[in-house]
């Protein structure tokens, strides 16, 4: 037993001498109805019982720990006035807190179509709550003797979900690369860590070359050779900086183990010898100063224009400088352009500018676009032959859990009790093909607190090769990572971190396995709903409507140059115009459904209006103003009563500066505003995470969403027409209407002076002699309604 205590923590080993060992494997369960509290808190009784059970269980645990120790909170103490006062205060303040919390965003509702947020899973709430009572801190094993073990198990499960193979310990001992993952506070920290490790990895061979020259403790290894990425083999000591800055990832990561295995140098000795030469120790400036002219141009990292802000942040924090984060323009589908990337990488090759990393986003923040990861990996293979190498990081913070769609269930296949096909779909052919390459990315960010339906804070970073984590630690590396030492906290950016978050991920993965019928089922349903919503957006504006809706995702026929009108008709008639049952029994429609709409389940779209003569507005500023007005109606104002909101969406601005001309020009064209000079398009954004079927026996949520959107569009257009009238009257463009301007315009329209006086009296609320936009908007409709003025007389 004492031997066990000194080497605890093998997730699948013998750490637990009694009871059930936690593990993540097996069939899991199949019912989304049992996985969430529900839009009407339908599972409240179950949640309440299990929360009470967790409290009771925890209390027994406390009481059984040295029962002979004194009790401090006696029954007598509980009757003391100050105790009663404190308890009263707790109750009163809790109630006022609970009342204030009602101003929160109703993520659980089908009417919430905004950000990357939805209900959190019941297992995750219970896992979090149960573990929170123990308050484990996963920074170090001493403070988290149960949840650090869970973190290692969860890390492996995430790796498997994403397509990394977790080998048996024996195979690791034989040198097979083992992946590794851990929980972070979120995607931002995971992305920073990924760039941190990539930066250190880039410079490691250079540091080693310097250490080999200077450190007597490494003298036996002075002739150690390495393969360059273009296939030469040479001693590290003789290689120039360019070659060393372009070694292949696994060749760099193998170096510490090779020093031990081939030259008998212990990992502690390597760590000590390297410390005086490493980037981690010296900082970028000093390392480059020492290497002098040998270090070529400043290295860069490439991200798609749709990148999350965490990458410039990472570059700033890591001393790389955000100027060295280069945006790769996106194509018309908001996916990184491979052609542009290749050109930029070739420029680097020519200039001898090292590249840390190319980031492929798997589910972009604004439009859930999936970058061509497969092509990026192929491009790296090609360029390595010419001497350029880099790590490939997949930012799958949003999209990573969709990998569960492709992961077969474990254990026996349960009997499917459903009568027919289910309202679920898979990912498109293109997206599936990118996911099949995920296991070849060097690192992957994936956020359980996004598509894992788990409470904050729970992000994660997974490395294909566990040795990558040693690049960011100050500790001697474990040569064989199969040892799986329980020291997760030393490999990350954070200090203290909640073990409860890990327990939440663990329990959720245990009950809802990240396989096809578990999380895969949730995402297949969410995709079904999202694509149906896309079909509705394409279909809802009929020719008589004074608006059009243009989703950012193009139709397959637009991409391939096919029959766009025919495809639109098909979508209207066979997808949008059908009940769910009819749709499910139409194989042709079900085959098209995964191929339309966004790559995942975030849909961006913009509304444009038509003039009274039926012609489409061509002014981008006016279209943007309309979309902002719609967003204002469909978003929460701080402090507002949420019960007054009937649908909630989010918004974003897509700019040429970031997205590039190809994307913006194409989208402007589709929106009908290409003749406008503006380069930023305001869009609305709906994230569809709910797995509930939108059609119920009582009615269709899709119809509810359409009606709310229609209402918001109509009211915003009305308001916008008034803006336009105001602007027409405000001839000197000073933002207010003076008497002369009003007189001139209204007389031109044939109004009598008495009518105009009445209008001014009603509008000029503060009696300033001029009418502001707010005064105008407040009074104009009343005035029209009173019949005092007939618009367009
Ligand atoms: C693609 C992507 N990466 C990273 C992040 C950052 O994640 P977090 O907010 O958890 O730090 C986000 C957040 O929206 C994201 O969408």
UniProtKB/TrEMBL annotation:
Q: Which GO terms describe its biological process?
A: carboxylic acid metabolic process
N6-(pyridoxal phosphate)lysine modification sites are: 450
Q: Which Gene3D superfamilies match?
A: EF-hand (1.10.238.10), Type I PLP-dependent aspartate aminotransferase-like (Major domain) (3.40.640.10)
- What keywords are annotated for this sequence in UniProt? Lyase, Pyridoxal phosphate
InterPro entries referenced in this protein's UniProt entry, alphabetically = EF-hand-dom_pair (IPR011992), EF_Hand_1_Ca_BS (IPR018247), EF_hand_dom (IPR002048), GrpII_AminoAcid_Decarb (IPR050477), PyrdxlP-dep_de-COase (IPR002129), PyrdxlP-dep_Trfase (IPR015424), PyrdxlP-dep_Trfase_major (IPR015421), TyrDC_C (IPR049373)
Entry keyword Ubl conjugation:
no
Q: What are the recorded GO MF terms, alphabetically?
A: calcium ion binding; carbon-carbon lyase activity; pyridoxal phosphate binding
Instruction: Tell me one Pfam family matched here.
Output: tyr_de_CO2_C
Show the stretches that span the lipid bilayer: none
Q: Which metal ions or organic cofactors does this protein require, according to UniProt?
A: pyridoxal 5'-phosphate
Q: Which residues form the EF-hand domain?
A: 751-786
In terms of PANTHER family, this protein maps to:
PTHR42735, PYRIDOXAL PHOSPHATE-DEPENDENT DECARBOXYLASE FAMILY PROTEIN
Protein name in UniProt: Decarboxylase
According to its UniProt entry, this protein's organism is: Polyangium spumosum
